[in-house]
Amino acid sequence: MKAVVFEKFGGPDVLKYVDLPVPRPGPGQVLVKTASVGVCKADWRVRTGRCQWLTCPFPVTIGYEMAGTVAALGPGVTGLSVGQPVHVLHMACYGTYAEYMAVTVDDVFPLPAGVDFDAAAAAFNYFVAWGLLHQIVQVRAGQSLYIGGAAGGVGTAVIQLAQQAGAEVIASASTDTKCEYLRQLGVSRVFNHKLEEDVSAVRRLSGGRGVDYVYDQVAGPRFCRQFDMLTTYGQIILYNYLGGYPEDREIIHILQSRCEGCYGLRYFSIHVHDDDPAGFRKVKEQVFALMASGAVKPPIHDVLPLSAAARAHELLEAGSIMGKLVLHPD
Ligand SMILES: NC(=O)c1ccc[n+]([C@@H]2O[C@H](COP(=O)([O-])OP(=O)(O)OC[C@H]3O[C@@H](n4cnc5c(N)ncnc54)[C@H](OP(=O)(O)O)[C@@H]3O)[C@@H](O)[C@H]2O)c1
After folding, report:
1. Backbone torsions φ then ψ of 140, nearest 5 degrees
2. Residue 52's pLDDT is what?
3. Ligand 1: which of 54, 89, 154 to mutate, judged by most atoms within 8 Å of the beta carbon?
4. What is the pLDDT of residues 149-186, one digit of tens each?
5. Full domain range(s) for residue 234
6. Do 145 and 77 share a structural domain?
């Protein structure tokens, strides 16, 4: 079979399209034939050596997520049948950029009718978005949120689930093309964060009130300015720190100096489910039910062949993906 592997951490060029034997499913494993692979910024973390959950030795087949059909069941596996459409999210953070994958049954979820493979290959973003909106906080109708750099995979998932919940969304992106894309997703309060300072833009677009939640994947030295986007009891919810760390002392000082706002700060990781498989299955059920009903339709940026995985990672690094990029076996 064909697969995309890397033997050292580095840029997109470390990804090699190679031949590997089709794996045999061991006890408790399922062999899945790939139909669509999801490309996620998390793959970039793995490829560059920033992922603490990757313990697999080199060479590593890259990829967290894919959708396909059950090709064979390993000893002891029940409840699935050959030919059944399934979603795979491998929490050990490798293995899905391949024509076949043998994976533990806990990482396999049966797809309900009405969910196509490309939509399913985007589901990881919606699991993250579900956690951000409904697990660590409970976003309700009438509440408001701001998400920056929102045209990517997780950003568009947060927007769609927030719209489902009846929340008011303010979103930004770095180009006018991406801003127009956000408007097409139904977000009317949009600004270009390269052209307009974000704190004043969020305050302007929230009518001076501030928002209940700021969703932030950047953090960085100027992280604390975002407390000024919040309304009373508002919370910043981090899900990455692409811009690096702020200074700890500054956070405490700034929270204390704004104590009339009583702001909160949370960090969400999908690995909160590592010790909670039953809870994670409930999240997956709810996300796939929304997809099956047509209430949520993941926007697919493009479909590339599996052999173009390095090109897909160049697009990921350029920040030019709007919605979800998926790969199909050649
Ligand atoms: N916590 C978790 O469990 C979890 C799980 C999965 C993913 N994530 C994180 O979620 C984020 C989104 O993932 P994705 O797959 O949706 O990525 P994506 O499709 O590449 O979108 C990310 C967006 O972030 C902005 N961006 C990219 N690089 C940036 C940088 N260095 N500094 C500031 N902004 C940058 C870009 O928007 P603009 O150009 O418009 O600014 C881009 O559209 C990533 O940071 C990923 O690591 C977290």
Report:
1. -120, 165
2. 87
3. 154
4. 999 999 999 999 999 999 999 999 999 999 999 999 99
5. 125-270
6. no
